[in-house]
Write a structure and sequence with these properties.
70% of the residues lie in helices and 9% in strands. It is mainly alpha-helical. The chain has two domains: 220 residues, Up-down Bundle (Alpha-lytic protease prodomain-like), CATH 1.20.1510; 98 residues, Cation efflux protein, cytoplasmic domain (Alpha-Beta Plaits).
């Protein structure tokens, strides 16, 4: 289990901070929606409720994914983080987006109602924006630190991240800030024109925003649950390390998979020097596995299988999966 001041502790701080902020904001928005009668404000209240549920799911993901391996789960519970994060994405869509769509269309096509106390809405939105900014800054700070640690740009890290919790908080907080601006515009245009259609349009826009965020996060966690390969930079480094070993004549196949955050499975088939004895091959496998785990801290499991590089069936299966490996490694 990670240290409280390490990556897991940082993720927990980000999630807990976001959850507390979202709960307080949800209560404020709900009260403001009752006072103003604004559909956009009610949509924003639903948005914050969805975000609060999301933080609970993410906190569950952090806790359950850190359990050690056991007989039933020999590779550990790292992928639980992806499962609960996927449920968080579903929560954003089901609790936030769908309600916002409903509230928006009900406002657009419903009976015209007079706007009441719009100043209350403006004050609550301004306070919510300030509070959400605190959570957003923490999420950005963690994501930048994680990207720097992995020697990636901010954008590259978001595409290759193996810890969906910080990405989820960052995206939902970004959506929250944009949603507040949309709600502010909806209430303002309602006040200026006297038409609640603008309030309803703002709600629909908030729903569309949440649907897009839910799709992006769902796609990220789907890829991680299916079993995504490790960072291509790490994969090339593993391949080069194996190819440089004096006992190995050729790396025939190399497969990696993320078992969880900071946990990578390596399975490789190599053609050993035919002059080596069985004992030499065994010792080489043990040494190479230890070297890979020492050089690449995320590598937790290594399996090395001796194979002849000339086997036609094996070569065909590798070509079907990767194409020409010699070209792939040089990309």
């Amino acid at each position: 289990m990670s240290d409280e001041n390490g990556p897991a502790g940082e993720s927990t701080l980000t999630v807990v901070l976001a959850g507390g902020v979202n709960l307080a904001i949800a209560i404020m928005k709900f009260v403001a929606s009752l006072i103003t009668g604004s559909g956009a404000m009610m949509s924003e209240a639903a948005h914050s409720v969805a975000d609060t549920i999301t933080e609970v799911l993410l906190l569950t993901a952090l806790r359950r994914s850190e359990r050690p391996p056991d007989r039933m789960h020999p590779f550990g519970y790292g992928k639980e983080r992806y499962f609960w994060s996927l449920l968080a994405a579903v929560s954003i869509f089901a609790s936030g987006a769908m309600f916002s769509f409903y509230e928006g269309f009900a406002t657009i096509f419903g009976h015209e109602e007079e706007q009441a106390s719009p100043i209350v809405g403006y004050i609550v939105l301004a306070l919510a924006f300030a509070m959400e900014s605190v959570s957003w800054v923490q999420a950005v700070r963690q994501t930048r630190a994680d990207a720097a640690e992995e020697n990636r740009s901010f954008g590259q890290h978001l595409r290759m991240v193996d810890d969906p919790t910080s990405k989820t908080v960052l995206f939902e907080d970004s959506a929250a800030l944009i949603g507040l601006l949309i709600a502010f515009a909806g209430i303002g245009l309602h006040q200026l024109t006297g038409s609640q259609v603008w309030d309803g349009i703002a709600s629909v826009c908030i729903g569309a925003l949440l649907a897009v965020v839910a799709y992006i996060l769902g796609r990220t966690n789907r890829g991680l649950l299916i079993g995504r390969q490790a960072d291509p930079v790490m994969v090339r480094g593993i391949r080069d390390h194996l190819a440089a070993a004096p006992e190995i004549e050729a790396v025939v196949d190399l497969q990696t998979m993320l078992l969880g955050t900071d946990s990578v499975l390596v399975c490789t088939r190599v053609d050993f020097d035919d002059a080596l004895g069985a004992s030499d091959v065994e010792h080489a496998c043990v040494r190479l596995a230890a070297e890979l785990q020492l050089r690449f801290s995320d590598v937790t499991e290594v399996f090395i299988e001796p194979v002849p590089r000339t086997d036609p069936d094996l070569r065909a299966s590798v070509l079907r999966r990767y194409g020409d490996l010699s070209e792939r490694w040089n990309q």
